[in-house]
Design brief:
By secondary structure, the protein is an all-alpha fold. 74% of the residues lie in helices and 0% in strands. It has one domain: Four Helix Bundle (Hemerythrin (Met), subunit A). α2 packs antiparallel against α3, α2 packs antiparallel against α5 and α4 packs antiparallel against α5. The longest helix is centred in the C-terminal third of the chain and has 31 residues. It is elongated.
Length: 146
């Protein structure tokens, strides 16, 4: 079956919410880069498909925001996602793939920020586990506003 990789499926099933968030953002970056590269090589159909996949990833991230409990971070992420979705929509309307580099830059910045936050979160979780913390008293995931 095309696209079926048991290793990847297992990796996703065992990934934490934080790791899935990072994988999604990274996937968006990869799809945008592929879209621009394919467009420059004249593979317009494949380029449009990759652009659409990036749009779907960003729309998914926007849809998973915890707007009720996410506070200012959720508001800021919502604004960033809206900007990126508008830019991709403009790219679709105008068939201009140049504006995708701005979206790619925003996603790359988000990725770096989330990566740092996830590393810090995992360190805190490990320290709590080593100190006898059961993890049931508090439950705050970085990805809850992802």
């Amino acid at each position: 079956m095309y696209g079926y990789n048991p290793y990847q499926k297992n990796q996703i099933q065992e990934a934490s919410q934080e790791d899935i968030l990072l994988q999604l953002i990274e996937g968006g970056i990869v799809r945008l880069k592929q879209a621009r590269d394919l467009w420059n090589r004249g593979e317009k159909g494949r380029a449009r498909e990759r652009r659409q996949r990036a749009y779907e990833i960003i729309a998914y991230l926007d849809g998973t925001l915890d707007r009720e409990n996410g506070g200012e971070i959720a508001d800021e992420l919502e604004a960033l996602y809206a900007y990126m979705l508008r830019e991709i929509t403009t790219s679709v309307r105008t068939d201009d793939f140049g504006c995708l580099s701005d979206v790619e830059d925003v996603l790359a910045t988000l990725y770096e920020g989330w990566k740092d936050a996830v590393i810090e979160y995992k360190k805190e979780q490990k320290a709590k586990q080593m100190g006898g913390y059961s993890g049931q008293e508090e439950h705050a995931h970085v990805a809850s506003v992802g």
